[in-house]
Amino acid sequence: MDKSKKALFTALFKLMRPLVKLLLRYGVSHSEFVEALKRIYVSVAESEQEFRVEDRKQSVSRISVLTGLNRKEVSRIQALPSDEEFEVTTHNRAAQVVDGWLRGSAYQDSNGEPIDLSLGGDSVSFSTLVKTYSGDMPVRAVLDELIRVGVVKKLGNGMLSLCSRAYIPQKSDTEKLDILGVSATDLLNTLEHNIPRPLENSRLQLTLAYDNLPEETVEEFKKMSEEHAQNTLLLLNDWLSKQDRSVNPSVSGHGCYRAGLGMYYFEESINKEEK
């Protein structure tokens, strides 16, 4: 095994551990995972341009050579009905409303905290918030979604209160797993993009970590990182949302791209005797 492939397998063992832990938690067997993996191998070999021979159709034989699966197995997999994939919209409208509630000065009190809103009836209301930050989405549809996932609650006086600083579904494992698929894919796509390319053509990929910290420091750092990450994302969202055609139809330019920035916090206990 050459040096690069050995390094890749070392990385593979590390990144697969949390995934296998999740698979076992949800009762996904080894055979089920292998079947899914075969379908992914065939799909990537069939669709990605870098694995195709120029001006030639990607044949079963070519896919077989690339993947190591025999021709009969490739044909079987190609004949299977395609799975419904999770569709990522250019911008999640409900998330835009939450961000607008957090950063819009009209929707903040003197301390910069989000105020409670009436559904409609005046210049500062949930209706105006939705119309400003979610394009043409119906107000009631956005409200129902935010209440459903636990981000907004209706108070006894009829006012609406923001009770979470992010649009993250709290009640459904299915939705959380959808987010896992999108977020992990974004990170891995960036890593895959950077590996064969020079630094000047790479995408942003930064990590900060220390490995000999006391528990008290970790707790303080967790709170600090959440605060600074939230402020950074709100600042970038303020600029990026104005460039999104769903929010601002007057934006000109070529093509249609999805772009963003992800941040994540991590910690683990280290057994010093093993180091």
Describe this structure in words.
With 275 residues, the protein is mostly helical. The chain contains nine helices and two strands. The chain has helices at 3-25, 30-47, 60-67, 71-79, 93-103, 126-133, 139-148, 173-194, 215-241, and strands at residues 152-154, 160-162. Strands 1-2 form a two-stranded antiparallel sheet. Helix 2 (30-47) crosses helix 3 (60-67), helix 5 crosses helix 6 (126-133) and helix 5 (93-103) crosses helix 9. The protein is globular, with a radius of gyration of 23 Å.
Global geometry:
globular
Helix content: 40-55%
Arithmetic mean pLDDT: 85
Total helices: the number is 9
The N- to C-terminal Cα distance equals 27 Å
Number-wise, the strands total: 2
Which structural class do the helices and strands define? Answer: mainly alpha
The Rg value, from CA coordinates, equals 23 Å
Oligomerization state? single chain
Largest sheet: 2 strands, antiparallel
- Which strand order do you get reading across the main beta sheet? 1-2
Secondary-structure element sequence? Answer: HHHHHHHEEHH
Low-confidence stretches: 84-91
Percent in strands: under 5%
